[in-house]
Design a protein that fits this description.
Layout (H helix, E strand, L loop, with lengths): L24 E13 L2 E10 L8 H8 L4 H9 L6
Antiparallel strand pairs: 1-2
């Protein structure tokens, strides 16, 4: 086993339309940092979990599929340093 791939990690807001139906995480309205990316300053947004059509969180389903714990993931992603 070399790894796995999940399509898509985050919702593609830039594409809009039906492309926004994909993604395990969305961006919330909390800017947590700014980063210089090739000379352009980019805002780093906090993440929020996305539910599937059945109403289940995709991050929990992925963690369960690989024997992981989604509560560890939740603690790491959802307790940001605070909005800027």
């Amino acid at each position: 086993f070399m790894g796995f791939s999940f399509f898509e990690f985050s919702v593609r807001y830039d594409k809009g339309g039906t492309e926004q139906a994909f993604g395990m995480f969305g961006y919330d309205n909390c800017a947590i940092a700014h980063m210089n990316y090739s000379g352009q300053v980019t805002t780093i947004w906090g993440l929020t979990r996305v539910k599937d059509r059945a109403g289940d969180y995709l991050s929990e389903a992925l963690a369960a599929a690989y024997g992981g714990q989604s509560n560890v993931l939740s603690q790491a992603l959802y307790h940001s340093k605070g909005c800027m």
